[in-house]
Amino acid sequence: MKKTPYLLSLLPILLLIGLLSTNVYLYGDDSLGGSNQLALLFSGTLAAIIGIFYGNNWKDILEGISKSIKSVTPSIIILLLIGSLAGTWLISGIVPAMIYYGLQILNPEIFLFATAIITAIVSLSTGSSWSTIATIGIALLGIGQALGLPVGLIGGAIISGAYFGDKMSPLSDTTNLAPAMAGTDLFTHIRYMMYTTIPSFSITLILFIIIGFRSNIIGTENIDKLLQTLNTSFNITPWLFVVPVLVIILIVKKTPAIPALLAGSVLGGVFAIIFQPNIITEISGEASVTISSSYKAVINAMSTDISITTNNNQINDLLTSGGMYGMLNTIWLIICAMIFGGILESTGLLRRIAEPIINYAKSTGSLVATTTGTCIFFNITASDQYISIVVPGRMFVDSYKEKGLSPENLSRTLEDSGTVTSVLIPWNTCGATQSAVLGVATLSYLPYCFFNLISPIMTIIYAYLGVKIKKLRE
Description:
The longest helix is centred in the middle third of the chain and has 29 residues. A two-stranded antiparallel sheet has the order 1-2. It has two domains: 207 residues, no CATH class; 235 residues, no CATH class. It is mainly alpha-helical. The mean pLDDT is 86. It has 24 helices and two strands. The protein is globular.
């Protein structure tokens, strides 16, 4: 097999960047409706042509694509279940109840600060940013919208807290994966991450407090109208919180995400039949609550677009769900991203691009900065959070040893850059998922994901200043 010239190996990446930039300019937020998917496919096609020209086998490329898509099968199932759960939690009154009580409890000025804290605690307990955002996050987004805050700002607070908790939780898959790649143990890794992660999150909380006190929050009179509308449209009761509490308990007890979310979705449907008979008749289009109307309403909520109409337009915008159908564009994007990443991996173009990057790293600061840049690069090109941890982990493990650095330096850098930046890339599995779950464009929440933006900068600063850089013992 011939060695691919370096500039030629970069061509698929350059084509992708050019096409994605064009799509954002021409389509704006609608670029996820198909144009970005095709950009990934066109760029993958170019990579395959280059790979075959330089000696790769088409069968091997197909196997690489299959392996890449197979790796996101659980994510696709989870996405469909999140769409289903959002629908049943809406018609059951669970999300409206969260909004109702949240509007009364949360002080508007500290809402963003409180949102980041709440999602951080839940994510730390469950070890899953995805589950946190799909449950508590959706409710907090509704509360923030009711207060008149921009959705991008609310999304930034939700994601910042959720990814802090995910990153620091011993239950998180990425928190276990990073030390495994670097060659250290889990709790050494978590303790060492605290040096960069806690300052990053502290700065994030300060920024949200400042923004909260400077934001234009709607008056208490409008909040009272919203509460009245929710109370008349739904049967609001604390019993509705039984379902989210059970889902959180299941996840804390290490129940896999798929059965936990399925249970939450089905229980949401059961609670809709018990507590919201008027919503059942509205969604089913039938005059009374029967077995057939209940089945029809729950299935509609799980599978397709639904909306609940009230006399308050502001609330109407919150009471909508796309069900599983609403997730199909995102799944399409993820599959196309995995095709592109699988072709780059199987043709060896990713390895070829990475070679000079490794050679560049001379000092401790440049090694950490290069690792950080490589993780972000893989998040952009391979479109998968796990690849952005696994591949750089393999690439740099010997370089850290050669420089006399303990493996926890590498594991911390992988998390500070790979885990947290994945959600900032619109076509990455994480970015595409959270955008779909929250209904907020990735580029809308990106500027406000302060924790995710600060973390990679913080780890580079520590490295160049020589702060908390642990050396290998002789």
